[in-house]
Amino acid sequence: MTRTPLTALLLLTASAGIAHAQAATPADLIVTARHIYTVDPVRPTVRAFVVKGGRIVFAGSAREAMALRGPATRVLDLGDRTVIPGIVDAHLHLLGLGTALRIVDLTGTRSYDEVIQRVAARAREVRPGEWVRGRGWNQNDWPVTQFPTHDALSRAVPANPVVLERVDGHALLANARALQLAGITTSTPDPAGGRIVRGGDGSPTGVFVDNAQGLVERVVPAPSRDETRQAVLAAIAELNRWGVVGVHDAGVRSATIDLYEELARAGRFDLRDYVMVSADSADLARAFARGPQAALYDGRLWIRAIKALADGALGSRGAALLEDYADDPGNRGLLVTDSATLQPVAIAALQHGFQLCVHAIGDRANREVLNIDQVALDSVPTADHRFRIEHAQVINRQDLPRFAELGVIPSMQTSHQTSDMYWAMNRLDWTRAQGAYAWRSLLNTGVVIPNGTDAPVDPINPMIRFHSAITRQDADGWPAGGWLPAERMTREEALASMTLWPAYASFTEQQAGSITPGKFADFVVLDQDIMTAAPERVLETSVLMTVLGGRTVYERRADR
After folding, report:
1. For the segment 487-516, what is each residue's pLDDT rounded down to a tens digit?
2. Among 144, 231, 336, 500, which residue is least crowded by beta carbons within 10 Å?
3. Residue 420: helix, strand or coil by DSSP?
4. In a 3-state reduction of DSSP, which class is residue 243?
5. In the predicted model, what is the mean pLDDT of residues 408-437?
6. CATH code of the domain in which 154 resides
């Protein structure tokens, strides 16, 4: 729904009226603390706030808050603890995160040998012939940074088919048994938008990039509905543990949405999920027929966005670049979906009242998507469309102002910069790197940057995102002064990027994103003040409590 300034004003007035009416009755909960950061520009810090019926009804002084105390009111005095709004991850894959929690974890492996050891250990726990899945390897972290070949893995695990996703989800490694079951041979052609990595003799090495992954994935047994349900519940619990109350869930299929709704109806979905429907034609047809859905099941589900893919990832050299990769002459990456396919999706999204969110990492992909958005908006002029580019990782400097000019939101992941900075300059060279992870340059044009993790690509710990945003350094303080430090965010911007800006990017800023009367009572209690702590101490911060709609969904045990 398009909102004029008058409409927005009326909504704010209505919210204030509701809050006033609720405040006339005794509170359910009063929270007091020395450090409460509201992320409300009208009143950025307070000492107390009041909850009634799952919403904030007052935020201000402790004295005023106590005037709303009744016989049954719970008072939560947090002393020197810090309270911030509920954290939102503006781009992740909920089911992917849940699945990653249940398969072989390869994140942090420092060599191919270590990958093989972990996979072989799991293979010993399962039956011969049973598939072994893993995720998280990154050859850029190994002594030898070329893609691995399947030979050593096939020798170590000959009896079980093995499929191992790269950390970014844009490449996979399969062993000989999996290749055999998938019918992959030297004569198998590369699919459009994908690449089979081959040896000198043309035979598959076992690595499949972007759309080529489907050649193997099509024979991997799908999880049962109960396995999927358990994976989703595990992901939600893990997110709550890190203070995350909301997610923007990228590329969700219809069957998974049905499962979300089933769990939400049963009161088992402790998350506010802004669903981006997969751009698969069948999923789109169903979403368009149903129309945009907002705040279903007491604000648990929004279904009014579409997720499409333009290119691959930088780490696997699948990101589409305007010029050759500096470390791979002749390779400019992959457009996994061509403009002729994406253009009608963008126009249809506007016609049906849906937001379009397109994955674009390379500078060519970002330019192509901006062009697609421009044509769509010329065809269907729309105010407040809030189209998004997911990742917006490498942008030609000439294209930076176009986001604000078109009203397109760059949805970025600050932790990607600190994950990639060790090798990104090798891929891009110095000149192109000036438009990489360019938060300050984009903010200076007037846009906002909703901040996510792309989990399970990066860890869901939001303190990593916050620390990356304000330092552009890793956990060890490298590099001194930060990687291209002029692109840092302020602390206030970093906090907004995980709270209020994701709310704006999901059309929920009237309901969430700050500790403001009328909004959902979603908040997080931290053990230290991240707005004043030394940068090197930010990563030591622990979540003590996560509250969703006034109800505690996670509380740290005293023995932790």
Report:
1. 999 999 999 999 999 999 999 999 999 999
2. 144
3. helix
4. coil
5. 96
6. 3.10.310.70
Coil, strand, or helix at residue 318? coil
Q: SS3 of 522, please?
A: coil
Position 450, amino acid: P
User: Which residue has 């700050």 as its token pair?
Assistant: 514
- The closest of 88, 46, 68, 26 to 520, measured between CA atoms, is 88
Q: Which long-range contacts (CB under 8 A, 24 or more apart) does 418-421 make?
A: 418/464, 418/468, 418/472, 418/473, 418/474, 418/483, 419/458, 420/314, 420/315, 421/472, 421/474, 421/479, 421/483
Q: Strand 194-198 to strand 204-210: parallel, antiparallel, or no bridges (unpaired)?
A: antiparallel
Residue 470: what residue type? Answer: I
Q: Are residues 4 and 17 in the same domain?
A: yes
Average pLDDT of span 132-146: 94
Co-location of 42 and 75 in the same domain: yes
Looking at the structure of the chain, the number of domains it has is 4
Pull the structure tokens for residue 317: 């050299």
Residue 211: partners with Cβ closer than 8 Å, 6 or more residues away: 191, 192, 193, 194, 334, 336
Indicate the length of the chain as a whole number.
560
According to DSSP, the residues that pair with 165 across neighbouring strands are 135, 172
* CA neighbor of 247 nearest in space, from 512, 51, 514: 512
